[in-house]
Design brief:
alpha/beta; 7-stranded mixed β-sheet; lyase; 386 residues; binds pyridoxal-5'-phosphate; 13 strands; pyridoxal phosphate; 4-stranded antiparallel β-sheet; pyridoxal phosphate binding; MfnA; aspartate 1-decarboxylase activity; globular
Length: 386
Amino acid sequence: MFPEMGASEKEVLRELEEKTREDLTFDSGKILGSMCTYPHPLAVKVVMRYIDRNLGDPGLHVGSQKIEKEAVDMLANLLGLEKGYGHIVSGGTEANILAVRAMRNLAGIEKPELILPESAHFSFIKAAEMLGVKLVWAELNDDYTVNVKDVEEKITDRTIGIVGIAGSTGLGVVDDIPALSDLALDYGLPLHVDAAFGGFVIPFAKALGYDLPDFDFHLKGVKSITIDPHKMGMVPIPAGGIIFREKKFLDSISVLAPYLAGGKIRQATITGTRPGANALAVWAMIKHLGFEGYKEVVREKMELARWFASELKKIPGIYLIREPVLNIVSFGSEKLEDLEEELKARGWGISAHRGYIRIVVMPHVRKEHLEAFLVDLRSIMAILTQ
Ligand SMILES: Cc1ncc(COP(=O)(O)O)c(C=O)c1O
């Protein structure tokens, strides 16, 4: 009910505290199945300081707009371009929708089709529905990467583009993006890489010596990349990233916003009014941690993920779906349903999907949290396999 009279600030805050007691928090160490994390303290400070900035009306907040452009360029730079075109958006979903919108608008084809791996995130289903694009799903190989031959066989004269995944949602698998890029170039199609998760992992993991395929703008067929600072970038939600190689992609999705207080602009994002503070936090985090800082975060979490995978393998009745590629470890069990239920009853923030449980070793996940999880897992499995 909408209250007739207002309550005191103290009362409102007390009620909020009481109601959010049900929430699982990242600092509890119980959230192991999320791609979000507790944001970095500097990013929190920046968001609080600049909470009123609206990048939907950049004429008013010219400084913030310049900072967003710098953030986009730094992300583009991380991904192999000197200069990129794009935005800090609300997340991977919006970034993927914008990429599909650009591919559709530039193709200008009737009954457009988009080819994407069966492992692709559900945001593409939303994009397809909203944009009237038919999704054509390509099969996966035994290692869960997309089958490039199957992608090729599915190309028709209605194809507007191809999607590859660099860090799949379920398993953190990186598709053979070099082969997809070659294919895209051969057929004159744009390749969009969904690196919502992997974008803030793969460049650093490669620098640490992990053997991972190229996935970014170094490959000429790659025309756009989704990269989410609110995942491994440690920026508060909402902070996604869409980077295009060429200006024409951004232009193709820009519409006139004629009435803004800061003056007319052309706007490409799905959201009109949108937070400047989070874009500033992306800029601040990149400046603060730099390549070496993020590399250290990735080093620790990649090593922890491998240790965790090796411990899982020792538990009777548990098997890995595949060796971890990034800092995601997914495992199955014949008793999956009972296991999921029991883990949830013990307060763990995990879920089972496609026949496995996914653990994402995010920055807030520490070894002692995984050790506590393993204690529970061992004891549940001992009961279930009796
Ligand atoms: C590969 C991939 N793409 C896109 C998304 C969507 O991101 P968001 O939830 O920030 O919209 C996710 C989310 O987990 C993802 O894993």
